[in-house]
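Check this.
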Amino acid sequence: MSDPVTRLDERFSDPGAQATSWTTAREALENAQLFWITTVRPDGRPHVTPLVAVWLDGALHFCTGPGEQKARNLAGNPQVVLTTGCNRWDEGLDVMVEGTAQRVTDRATLERLATAWAAKWDGQWQYQVTETGFSHNGADDVHVFSVRPAKALAFGKGDFTHTTHGFPA
């Protein structure tokens, strides 16, 4: 993954503010315990739900059961936004990743992702790799998706900044 083109949007930033570096935004993605995913229903309405995700190989990865609303939405429209941050207005960093969710079925990648999930949460998320994804707590068909950023937005709070990280196609 090449480094993104980073730009501070001065319209929404404090005077003299500096852009949030991609390194800082990426670290927030790597360390976040919870994300909110936004998908689009077939009728165009948004659907938002919390989930856990891991950053690996320049992408965010998440899981869902095939019958869940987000999986049904992704079947018709793979465009998503994954959001993480904090619920304070005066401190912290919120980061949003826009991109296309792609199903992961490569066994070697799934093995690495299962290891990453277990490591990130000290063994609390244990996935077994199957031919089509993961198995978890009796669910035999857990779909795994990867989202490479097309664009990432970083919103610094306290010292307010609005940074866009654009990724060349």
User: Anything to note?
Assistant: The mean pLDDT is 93. The first helix runs from residue 22 to 31. The radius of gyration is 17 Å. The domain at 5-166 is CATH 2.30.110.10 (Pnp Oxidase; Chain A).
